[in-house]
Write the structure tokens for this entry.
Amino acid sequence: MTELATSTAARQNERASSEPEHKPLALLLGNPNTGKTTLFNRLTGQSARIGNYPGITVERRSGELRRDHASAIEIVDVPGAYSLSARSTEEQIALASALGLAGYPRPDLCVVVVDAGQLARNLYLVFQLLELDLRVVVALNMIDEVRDNPPSESALARFLGVPCVATDARRGRGISALEAAIAAALESPPRVGMSISYPKALERDLLEVERALPPAWATSPARKRALALWALTSIETDDELENVDPKLRECCLAMRARADARDIDQEVIATRYAVIDAEVPKLYPRLEAHPPKRKTSERVDRVLLHPVFGFVIFVALMLLMFQSLFSWSDPAIRLIEAGTSGAARLVEAHAPEGLLRDLITKGVIGGVGNVVVFLPQILLLFFCIGLLEDSGYMARVAFLMDRVMKALGLHGRAFVPMLSGFACAVPAILATRTMERQRDRLLTMLVVPLMTCSARLPVYTLIIAALFPPSRVFGLVPVQGLLMVAMYLFSTAITLIAAGVLGRTAVKGRRIPLILELPPYRLPSLRGTLKMMLQRSSSFLREAGTGILLFTVLLWGLLSFPRPTNQPETAAPAAAAIHQRVSAEADAKPSAPSVGSEALNGRPTAIEQSYGGRLGKALEPALRPLGFDWKIGVGLIGAFAAREVFISTLGLVYGIGDTKEDDAPLRDKIRAERRLDGAHAYTPLMGLSLMVFFALSCQCMSTLSVVYRETKRFRWPLFMFTYMTSLAYVVSLLVYQGGRLLGFS
Amino acid sequence: MNLAQTRIGQVVTVEHVGGEGSFRRRLMELGLLPGTRVEVVGIAPLGDPMELLLRGGSLSIRRSEAEDISVTLGEVTSTERARASRDASTLPAQGLARSAP
């Protein structure tokens, strides 16, 4: 951190000299569940932007506070933290932001958001910031929840020695007073440092640690002491901190080892709490023996966390959420599909025929459609998540499901993203952001694409309808329906196993004990939720959209080139496979029947001659052991655009134009396909092997693009593709060869 | 007795906080210290985790970690509490001091 900090300081000085009036920077810090983000939205209005902290996938929200007649103030929303002490890179952000270390800009002011109903716990963080000698303003938020016995702002301000403003961010009360306090604090001289007297032995240790601090940290005596305290309570032999000066690390570890009889952590923390405990009761107008109980929330929890009703309500809520993702988004998706195919038709009608037109209609418009088509589900999922988070129920989901999720090595909050995976992996991966720890997010992201998403259903339907008899087991249960259920169970089981295995291997992390806060139930704010939905969607479009668009054009090229020279019109339907998802109708144009007849005459279709077609043939020796031929191979390549594109690609291989609305002709082709020896080319066993392959393989460029977007590393999408494809290959091989050994054909 | 042995509705006073280093520190930072009054509010339907109420705030931890926290039934008076926290931190007279910047 040292070099980084020094270089930042240098850069800042530079900036200060070249731009004497740089925008002042205020940080918004606070415990989780204090309404910090709501307050941030109130202060910054329309100017809020979401970005990432450099080198780590933690969101960084920033915006501008503009007051009349005053220059703008930049506000950065720091991720919620109970304390500045850290054991991981994520938790280091709070300290690094507050001090302007590790390349972060140095703030001019810290606005600490405090839950008025939980002063003692919240003041702990305030103390740490005050000890660091920072300019602080306290927002005493959620003051409306303690109306019957509200703590006094002025008494708190006197106690802490900094301005305190009571706010109710949800209703927008106290905001202008807070803005005025922020502006005034930025004008005022630096505040007087605060120090707490610690036990004598600890004070001696601190002096020693202070001497080991890197020079860039030692800006004032008070800050030196506070940083020594931070280092002493954060650095450990097995911490996951980054950029810690080796000399400082060595000194802290030596100090800890030497103090074995003493308990340094407890000395520090108990001393701070002793000061807080002595003062907090004096801040209230009425003295109460115990902190107020949260009666309403407790009563609601008696139902919502009830062993029976709790689970019934939980299942009902989750089903409702899933239902909305799965089917309510459908009309919107259809509308987008119709829009894209309309646009493609429009270009086709007006532009001269040729390569450029195909590139625009099939590649670009199709690609844009492939991106936009995810929006309905993303918007809906984040709407649900917003309501769940805001109301306080998301923490209850983690509470209810912890036992199950822990057994799988997953975080309790992984439940909602996992469930969303049954609809679509793309919004589900975006939803992993509800987890704080990078490792938890990564593990969830890596297994979510194994869930049976909606894009797999048309493929399963086709295979089951084409290759399995419509008979019933025991004359009761239809085989076809049973197979569909089996595929769901199979994918769920595999996902859970994969989570268990990957959590112990590829994303091995220290087992971190659960610490969960169940916040009081609160009415969700529609405004904040809508805002979040828009922010997430626009960042998806910006960051993942490019990758999906690029992939679409690439796949279009793969299946369209080289263009057949003697029959130029056949190239168009070949490429149609790629954007079948968005504009299949547009491609059922006059050229299609002619391709069909060519195929019947035994002439190769355009797609067969394309690079993709050749690749499919080249892959055939590898696919044979799974029971697939080259035609399936080409289908698998096309399915990379989105799994259901498998159907239209296969349709093109067989020279059938439009397979979107009705796949009966394709089913007939599949049933009729013969090998050279006259036997059926596609058997139920091969169908099973193919379904297993689809269940496990990573046939989705959008998923890969989103994983890259969330991890900012090529390593993880690459790893995901490799592990899923290998898994698919091996299990399909086992199914097919095992089935043959058992005497199935 | 330890915290995992308590029942819903019981009020206990923390005697000693044990457990893995950084987790234990975070628990204490959240206000779970020797001498703290803790109310067991609920236990998740599947038996784990358990929800605690302390210093007016909620905190849920798993039984496996609650086993490392030793408690006594009932509440101690404020003077006893003060003595407990003083013993725990071998605290000299404390208070806020203001130093010049």
Observations:
- Strands of chain B lie at 11-17, 37-43, 50-54, 57-61, 69-73, 96-98.
- Chain B touches chain A through 53 residues (CB under 8 Å).
- Residues 12 and 73 of chain B are 4 Å apart (CA to CA).
